[in-house]
Each structure stands twice: as C-alpha cells, then as structure tokens.
UniProtKB/TrEMBL annotation:
The keyword S-adenosyl-L-methionine applies. It comes from Rousettus aegyptiacus. The keyword Mitochondrion does not apply. Residues 3-37 form the tRNA wybutosine-synthesizing protein domain. This is tRNA wybutosine-synthesizing protein 3 homolog. Residues 43-100 are annotated as: Disordered. It comes from the Eukaryota. It catalyses: 4-demethyl-7-[(3S)-3-amino-3-carboxypropyl]wyosine(37) in tRNA(Phe) + S-adenosyl-L-methionine = 7-[(3S)-3-amino-3-carboxypropyl]wyosine(37) in tRNA(Phe) + S-adenosyl-L-homocysteine + H(+).
Length: 100
C-alpha cells in the first residue's frame, strides 16, 4: 500500500468542504429550477392567446412558403435563414421573477 502524503485529518477536512459545496450546489440548482418553473408558468398565464396566434401565423407562413416553392419561386440563402427563424414561437421568459 502507498504512503499517505497528507494527514487523515486533512483528507477529512477536504471531504467535509467538498460535501458542503455539493450541498450548496444542489440547493442552487433546486432554487434555479423553481424560479424557472415559476417564470414559465407566469409567461404561459400572461400570453396564452398570443402563442396561439403566433402558431397560426407560423403555420400559414409555412403553407405560403411551401406553395411558393411548388410554384418555382427562387429563395436566397438570406431568405431561407429568415424563414427558419420564423418557426420561433416568440417566447421570452424572465428567469428570476421580480417577486422573488
């Protein structure tokens, strides 16, 4: 067996510090998750119709785009990128609500 280069007390000390940091990180992750859930719920509650309308607009835009390609319209790379960005639902979320 190998020779210890530090005392067992020092190893216990490092282990204690590491465990404390792990517990703190666990609490931070839980707090972040709870804030994220709360923000998403608030966002959903405050903009339900806006999302539905945006989805409909996105659908009609895709329909027009597919009709345009079928009729032989030319699209540039810039237009393709722009059309890809239109699939975004436009959801913006405040991660940490003001009341926290």
């Amino acid at each position: 067996m190998g020779k210890l280069m530090v005392t067992e007390e020092y190893i216990d000390f490092l282990l204690k510090i590491a465990n404390q940091k792990m517990e703190e990180n666990k609490r931070r992750i839980e707090r972040f998750y709870n804030c994220l859930q709360h923000a998403l719920e608030r966002e959903t509650d405050s903009h339900p119709k806006e999302k539905i309308n945006k989805k409909r607009d996105s659908y009609s835009h895709k329909k027009k785009r597919s009709q345009g390609k079928a009729s032989g319209k030319y699209t540039t790379e810039e237009n393709d990128k722009e059309l890809e960005n239109d699939d975004d639902l436009g959801i913006s979320v405040t991660i940490f609500p003001e009341d926290y």
